[in-house]
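INFO worker-7 received task bundle
INFO bundle size: 2
INFO processing item 0
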Amino acid sequence: SITVNFRFSRRWSLESGLSYTVLFSSRETTVINHKQTKLNAKLQYLGIPLLLNFDIVSGEKFTWYTSFGAMVEKGLNARYTTVHLSNGETINEVRESYPLEGLDVSAIFGMGIDYNINKLLSYYLQPGLSAYFVTDGSPYNPRVSRSVWPNIQTGLRFHF
């Protein structure tokens, strides 16, 4: 992610920017009569978060903070690979790719550490949870199967 952080008090700030997400999924069937199928999926998203951050502990180089808010993501594309195996060797491989329609909406909560590179720029690492809301336009993806997922957000943050 690349975000812009606007501080409106000593501990509180508002943040938005651009986030890139990749989801990987892999499944395989059991071996029956020496045959097996492996399925791999890769979905890519571009999102815009809107977050409220609260600094728990601030130092010269590091800040420990908590963050909560929402994000809207547009699916870019999906790539699926199906591999058919016989006796452990590939006999057929099918690759498909298509654009994703619709938007995903999520609520985000996390706690992170911000490392100050200088006064205007920092690097952050924020583990947390995302709750995904299925909308009419949501494309099918692994996040639809259950609503709350762990996540790790990382990137550059510009401070103003």
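INFO item 0 finished
INFO processing item 1
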Amino acid sequence: MHIAITDYVLEVVQNAFEANSTNTRLMLQETAEAISVTVADNGKGMSEEVMKRALDPFSTEEGKHPLRKVGLGLSFLSQATELAGGKLTLQSEVGVGTTVHFTFDPASIDTPPLGDVVSTFMTLLAHPKAGSLVIERKTETDGYTLDRKELIDVLGDLEMSGSLHLLKEYIASQEAALS
């Protein structure tokens, strides 16, 4: 069960990595009107038929989950956004990539909490399949960008504990500076 918006972010970006995306872009924006997330990738993409099945909780891509026959991530996300007055849109083209956009109404009692942004971003940036990952974080007045390639140039290997510690401190400082 997903208990925070960042859980959905992890799910959608993980899907991009599993679709062999070499360039993934995540934007997380908070305003008074909406909490908005967009994940765009250049992975294998999906046909119209596959996109419909991606929203079906009783369907999953063959071989994706060897121990289960269902894929609940996008169907739970679709249901959660609808319940909270938001929406989910999928755009995809085979061989080109996929864009997933979802919103939650921050005023809705059914909107889950945002979650642990620092740990979520660290997990994604350190993922071995992350490739070229750019994360944009915005509020109404502030924002910052995390570019995985730039971070590796500065911090070194993101699988090393020292680099991860510095990455955590950096992201936490960026989050603290948001107003």
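INFO item 1 finished
INFO post-check item 1: The CA atoms of residues 6 and 115 lie 5 Å apart.
INFO post-check item 1: The two ends are 30 Å apart (CA to CA).
INFO worker-7 idle
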